Amino acid sequence: MDRKIQKKRWTPKRIALIIAATLFAVFVGYGFSTTTGGSRLNVDQDKITVAAVERGAFQELINVTGSVMPRTTVYLDAVEGGRVEEIFVREGAMVTAGEPILRLSNSNLQLQLLNNEAAVTEQENMLQNMRFQMEQNSLNLRQQLMQMDYEIIRLRREHERNVELHAKKLISDQEYERTKDELDYYINRRELTWQSYQSDSLAQSARLLQTQESISGMRRSFALLQETLENLTVKAPVSGHLTMLDAELGQLRPSGSRFGQIDVLDSGYKIRAGVDEFYISRVQRGQTARTTPIGGKEYRLEVVRVYPEVRDGRFEVDLDFVGEVPPEIRRGQTIRFYLELSDPAEAIILPRGGFYQTTGGNWVYVVDPSGDFAVKRNIRLGRQNPSYYEVLEGLEPGERVVTSSYETFGDADRLILN
Length: 418
Hints:
Layout: H1 12-36, E1 40-43, E2 50-52, E3 54-58, E4 61-70, E5 73-77, E6 82-87, E7 94-95, E8 100-105, H2 107-167, H3 173-230, E9 233-235, E10 240-245, E11 252-253, E12 258-263, E13 269-276, E14 288-291, E15 300-311, E16 314-322, E17 334-340, E18 345-351, H4 355-359, E19 363-367, E20 373-378, E21 380-384, E22 388-393, E23 400-402, E24 414-417
Parallel strand pairs: 1-24
Antiparallel strand pairs: 2-23, 3-18, 4-13, 4-17, 5-12, 6-8, 6-11, 7-10, 8-9, 10-12, 13-16, 14-15, 14-17, 15-16, 18-22, 19-20, 19-23, 20-24, 21-22
Helix pairs in contact: 2-3
């Protein structure tokens, strides 16, 4: 008797066909997804930050950190080197102008002062001897001239008598000529002596003047040495706060070395800050800044000096407070502020976020109006400040952008927001 044979529902052939169809469907779906939306990644909306693109006032600012410094600081430098013998006050003390701070000793300088003093004394003695000799020479010459004048008067009288006697033939020709020759001799001798006296006087006067000038120069040098010796006692040039004193007893310090500094507290305070060298051509005197809240209040600053020297990739600027100064501000206190590099102007702006570290501002994930997903889009950003980026291309006001970090998104082209 024949029996009806029951066919198996899940035959190996049917199972193989189902698996092949499923793989084909997955392949087709994957191809469709990569051509229409790219790779996808499911993201929890609670773990990302979304911000809206806006049109508003944009001002380029840079975040800078500076330190409080007195507006006027006077440095204590060694005019002459020496050994530290005494220290009268210590760092942190309040000093008044002229108050001794420390004393140095310098044996070489003291020996030089003594040698200079001896040289001055020697030159002064030489000057006195020269004057005495000039007076003696002058006295001798005057005596000689007086003697010659006497002889000339005497011989002239005798000659006048001989002229009468010779005319009467009462004296010989020899006697007449003797007195005449002797008279002429004394007259000529007196003239030569007088010329010699004048010449010697001029020469002696020149030597005297030269010696006096030499002594004056040596006295000035001596006075400078005395002043330098007095400067071995370092005194406070102004009244203020001795904020630094680098000196120890017995320490040898060279000329020009810096011992410390005095802050003039009455002159007020300034801020000195280092700025990245990238902005050196854009920071100028007169630019303004505003501090982060100090005691719950912001304060205005103004750039008063830009130092052109660049060190370790940074240059320094000094800023003064404009108007009100924070109460109880202290030297060395850290102040954070925003330096304004441009005036406010209308622009398309995007809030800052962690995405920039991954994309460099070249692309972002833009949220679809439905809010179900976000798609990668290329953009171009311009300037920035601590709160916003300036959008140049790729975004419009009202669009929403994922601004949190993209580190965990990989190469996903589309974020599915759950």
